[in-house]
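Q: What would this chain look like folded?
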Amino acid sequence: MLRRSSGGTWKGCWRGRGEARAKRVKSRYPRTNMLNRRNLLRAVIAGAVPSALVLGQDKPKRSPDVPYVPTTEAAVEAMLKLAGVKKTDVVYDLGCGDGRIVVTAAKAYGARGVGIDINPERIKEARANAKKNGVEHLVRFEENDLFEANISEATVVTLFLLSNINLKLRPKLMKDLKPGTRIVSNTFDMGDWKPEREATVGSPDDIDSYLSHHLYFWTIPAKK
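A: My prediction, written as structure tokens:
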């Protein structure tokens, strides 16, 4: 549900239903690391989390722009809801990790999806995830640099990067995407490009849920 704040900004809060679904993620997605949220947040901001936490992984062509931090299941559902995803959409997730956003978009809405990640280990996980969920015919995953990938087909773009990477990516979004394309970012904004809507996942008072807690929504404006 979206509600209007005192300042006129639309905000949303998915509580009981989202929290219940978030609990089920433990059985659907294994934990990728043992860092607690506060330490993980410090590591994300400092850029201190290594791109590969397990020895022997395939190495990406270059260091990823951000450390891998999975979006919570509750936030995945909230992002797709905020974007208004429907069957006719093509959802691109830039920095797709294990592919959970495009897999959920395909499974829950019947949308097509493309996940892009520079890390080959993440692409392997994403393809396995799509196969497990029976949506291989609707999604594909591309090992590529998100700054170089062709994203022009997208009608929805999802992000969970960092604010400075969002700002660096913004010119490409404006240039490559069609007017009306919807963009949803998990946790991080785009500086002076003010969001049209914002949403909160979980309790606004939960200080330990900074990541996957606040969402931002924009649409690509008409070309000038």
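The longest strand covers residues 112-117.
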